[in-house]
Design brief:
about 325 residues, alpha/beta, Rossmann fold, 5-stranded parallel sheet, 10 helices, about 45% helix, globular, disordered N terminus
Amino acid sequence: MNSAARTRNTTGAGNTKNTTSKAKTKGKGRGKTSRLHTLARGAAAVVAAGSLALLGVVAGSAPAGAADRQVYVALGDSMASGPLIPDITGPLACGRSTHNYAHVLAARFAVDKFRDVTCSGADTGDMTSPQELSLAGVDMGTAPAQFDALSADTTLVTLTIGGNDVGLVGVAQGCATLNPFATPCRDTWTAGGVDRIAQRIDAFAPKLGAVLAGIHARAPLARVVVTGYGLYIKPNGCWPYQPVLGVDANYLQGSVNRLNSTVAAQAAAHGAEYVDVAGPSDGHDACQAPGAKWVEGYVPTDLAAPLHPNRRGEANYGRIIGDHID
């Protein structure tokens, strides 16, 4: 600015050689006044620029702070809630443990806000509607729709769902037998060449797709991580330690694997991330020794629900999911 001003003044002086002395006097007065005004305007501009810069720093820091705030919402069924693993939090009938994988993740990432609404018995319908609760056949009221926990500032969502839509635990319970000569339950579920469990899994797929779309709509900034289910029983089982025939052990775990593949496909199709927990569970199924298994069998040897992850399993699921998030 000062250089440009000096150039203009030099040019102006050359053009005033033929003017009257009065004009020269007036010109000199105006030049001094102009220079004072220029300096004043320059000082004001510097002050204004500094003020704007300061405001910019203050204003810019607010969104950055907001972006750093971590709000984590855990959705899902009993595989995520950890029933009968001490300590219980939330509605008793939800069987929500303070040592489920969601709590492991919340502690690992030191989130600012944590909402765990996982609940035993939940299916895809309970994401948008209240869930009717019961315990040992006794009415325990309702749990709010799990989507009520979602908000526009949610940054992370985990989801485990599908087991109750398909009814896998009930199917597994019906397959238990101590008779080595019993008719495999697989034959019942695949009578006539139609695998009815596979049909249920296929029917579940669009329901999961709708759930994932609903999460994105309610929490558009969130990273959505969907898990599969674990390895419950090794190939050919371990009858009678786990009272299910070898052929049925393969059928049951095969159905779990089919469900996991469906979950993975829907996650990929709806902007979510899939985490496999079955593969890393190899050697930790219900056939293993109490200190090694991550899931309980038909008769638990640890504080956990039958055919569900124990505390060790939830801790390892949390580690696996956390490593993926990292």
